[in-house]
């Protein structure tokens, strides 16, 4: 029995050695073949690999990346659709609630600004009325016409006053050199018109003062604009910038 086992072991060892030798021979032959191929066709193989690398980088890789991007985009769209389907109602309700809250805040802010503006205007009107009452009309008219180069005593609804102001608006003048007094917005309207009657011989409006002198009313101002006298008067008063 021991002899049989030893015989099988010997045969096994011989077979293993023979297989190892064959394997080494195969590797050696393969190496020689590869070496021969590279020696004979090395530059050709290198050129083919270079061309393949260029084509891969230039076309194949970009095409593959486009495919991957499309797949990713489709996956995201599918995910968004599933998310919208699952939580669409919740998202819509949340958006409507947020929009309603924003609208309420805007309305509240608008109301607050409106109240603030009304208080501001009331304060201005109150101070203006107080100043109108405290200042003597004659002093007010004389000081204003002497200190301001161009003064127009007008009424906001009067069409003749609008014609005179339109004629003056064709010339560029600084705001501090050109004043328009709307008498219908003042409490001392009648008193100022009486003063204008004393100074100019007429209490009708408009009364246009240039350089401290009254040039007349609407017709006089428009006529002076047409014949060039108005431009000359404004230049002499130093108010018009041509």
From TrEMBL:
CDD domains: GRX_GRXh_1_2_like
Chain's role: Has a glutathione-disulfide oxidoreductase activity in the presence of NADPH and glutathione reductase. Reduces low molecular weight disulfides and proteins.
Native source organism of the sequence: Wuchereria bancrofti
Any GO CC annotation of this UniProt entry: cytoplasm
GO MF assignments: glutathione disulfide oxidoreductase activity
InterPro entries noted in UniProt: GLR_AS, Glutaredoxin, Glutaredoxin_euk/vir, Glutaredoxin_subgr, Thioredoxin-like_sf
Residue ranges occupied by any Glutaredoxin domain in the UniProt entry: 150-215
Lineage summary: Eukaryota, Metazoa, Ecdysozoa, Nematoda, Chromadorea
Gene3D superfamilies: Glutaredoxin
TM region(s), chain numbering: 30-56
GO-annotated biological processes: cellular response to oxidative stress
Keywords recorded for this protein, A-Z: Disulfide bond, Electron transport, Membrane, Redox-active center, Transmembrane, Transmembrane helix, Transport
Name of the protein described by the UniProt record: Glutaredoxin domain-containing protein
Keyword Disulfide bond carried by entry: yes
Domain of life: Eukaryota
């Amino acid at each position: 029995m021991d002899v049989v086992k030893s015989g099988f072991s010997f045969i096994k060892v011989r077979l293993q050695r023979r297989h190892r030798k064959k394997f080494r021979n195969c590797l050696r032959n393969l190496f020689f073949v590869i070496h021969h191929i590279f020696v004979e066709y090395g530059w050709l193989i290198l050129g083919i690999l270079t061309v393949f690398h260029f084509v891969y980088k230039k076309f194949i890789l970009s095409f593959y990346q486009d495919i991957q991007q499309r797949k990713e985009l489709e996956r995201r769209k599918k995910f968004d659709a599933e998310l919208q389907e699952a939580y669409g109602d919740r998202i819509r309700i949340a958006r409507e609630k947020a929009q309603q809250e924003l609208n309420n805040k805007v309305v509240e802010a608008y109301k607050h600004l409106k109240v603030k503006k009304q208080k501001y205007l009331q304060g201005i009107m109150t101070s203006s009325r107080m100043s109108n009452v405290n200042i003597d009309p004659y002093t007010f008219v004389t000081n204003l016409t002497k200190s301001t180069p161009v003064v127009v005593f007008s009424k906001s609804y009067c069409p003749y006053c609008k014609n005179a102001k339109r004629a003056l608006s064709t010339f560029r003048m600084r705001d501090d050199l050109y004043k328009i007094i709307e008498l219908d917005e003042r409490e001392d309207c009648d008193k100022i018109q009486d003063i204008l009657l004393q100074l100019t011989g007429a209490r009708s409006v408009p009364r246009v003062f240039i350089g401290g002198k009254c040039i007349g009313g609407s017709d006089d101002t428009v006529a002076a604009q047409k014949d060039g006298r108005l431009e000359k008067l404004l230049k002499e008063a130093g108010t018009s910038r041509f």
